[in-house]
Design a protein that fits this description.
Blueprint (H helix, E strand, L loop, with lengths): L5 H4 L14 H9 L7 H20 L21 H8 L8 E6 L15 E6 L7
Parallel strand pairs: 1-2
């Protein structure tokens, strides 16, 4: 196993990176992966989330406003990046926007409630990318 150099460690959040496998985003990732990557897959995702949050927290200061664009997986339900941001910058005010696909765009489906502060509903037959 290769160890990270000090220079490489400067590119990620400070070690050790806290990991909470009970967070829904990491539990869902583990379930959806069908065992691919094992327990390390959501841990790798957590390193990415923590790293994004770390560098956002370093750029942010009270009174500043910022926007960070990321895939919904990284911030739905206040998890992922938001979870780490709250640890790195206690008191930070966060808001999030996500997009969901539904057959009926006029009524938010129960499964999509609470995913974000603002939810944009699009038709389920809309073109998507991953």
């Amino acid at each position: 196993m290769a160890l990270l150099s000090q220079e490489e460690k400067n590119w990620i959040a400070p070690l050790p990176i806290e990991y909470d496998g009970s967070l829904g985003c990491y539990k869902r990732m583990l379930e959806m992966s069908g065992g691919h990557g094992g327990d390390n897959l959501p841990k790798a995702q957590a390193v990415k989330d923590a790293t994004m949050a770390w560098f956002i927290s370093k750029a942010w200061s009270k009174g500043k406003f910022g926007i960070h664009y990321n895939g919904s997986w990284h911030s739905e339900y206040g998890e992922g990046i938001q979870w780490y941001l709250k640890k790195y910058s206690p008191g930070i005010q966060l808001g999030s926007i996500t997009t969901v696909s539904q057959k009926n765009v006029n009524v938010l489906e129960k499964e999509n409630l609470d995913k974000s502060d603002f939810i944009i509903v699009v038709a389920e037959d809309m073109t998507t990318t991953h």
